[in-house]
Amino acid sequence: MNTSKVIIVTGASQGIGAETVKAFLANGHRVVANARSIASSDDPNLVTVAGDLGNPETAKRIVEAAIGRFDRIDTLVNNAGIFIAKPFTRYTSEDYAAFNGVNLNGFFHITQRAIAQMEKQRSGHVVTITATLVDQANSKVPSVLASLTKGGLNAATKSLAIEYAKAGIRVNAVAPGIIKSPMHAPETHSTLAAFHPLGRMGEMSDIVGAILYLDSAPFVTGEILHVDGGQSAGH
Predict the structure, then answer these.
(1) What is the value of pTM for the model shown?
(2) Distance CA 56, CA 43 (A)
(3) Domain boundaries, the chain
């Protein structure tokens, strides 16, 4: 029995996205990886599609690449996202447009197309990376636009899970704490570690492990899995 899946990963050129691509490939799956700029691949199990996910045409090209090369879509990992921490009154209209463009528009265009294909197959899984700050606001990390957009994705996750449950499509999210990734300079790590009850930052492998778990859990849907060192429980 062939257990190889076809996985789309967005925001795949570095950090959690790149590690997710590696993990799925290592497990014998086939991957379509997207980022604004991403190198081409000669791996027969990996197709890369460069482009801005906020543009509907990019989502179209990603899905066409998956169907054209691998003939199906089993899992969509919505990893692409931006995070800018600023006091609310200092956000600019450009910041607002950027958050909406990546976090919401990008999610909408690719998820809509992927689910349309999954409906034909009567199976599929969508997992979206959100943020634990949505549930545990922190005065030291003012981030209303992240909460506005990622909170919307949490709500959309539950809504889609119910809408498509009978179609055999599962929809989940992973809500990370602060993760050691290229987004955070090493000199900030000790300060950021203190935000977590466990006293450390998360590793990228913690998030990848959560994605792999959800993808292999057929009875789990509509779940917001917090991988945040205890932040969502309190302080």
Answers:
(1) 0.96
(2) 26
(3) 6-229
Any idea what DSSP says for residue 202?
Answer: B
Q: Using an 8 Å Cβ cutoff, are 34 and 9 in contact? A: yes
Contact 47, 69 (CB under 8 A): yes
Tens of each residue's pLDDT in the chain, 235 residues: 568 999 999 999 999 999 999 999 999 999 999 999 999 999 999 999 999 999 999 999 999 999 999 999 999 999 999 998 899 999 999 999 999 999 999 999 999 999 999 999 999 999 999 999 898 888 888 889 999 999 999 999 999 999 999 999 999 999 999 899 877 788 888 888 988 999 999 999 999 999 999 999 999 999 999 999 999 998 7
CATH of 6-229, one of 3.40.50.620, 2.60.120.10, 3.40.50.720, 3.50.50.60: 3.40.50.720
Contact yes or no for 4/29 (Cβ under 8 A): yes
Other beta carbons within 10 angstroms of residue 77's beta carbon come to: 28
Residue 112: helix, strand or coil by DSSP? helix
Structure tokens at 191: 């300060």
Q: Residue 84 is encoded by which pair of tokens?
A: 């800018």
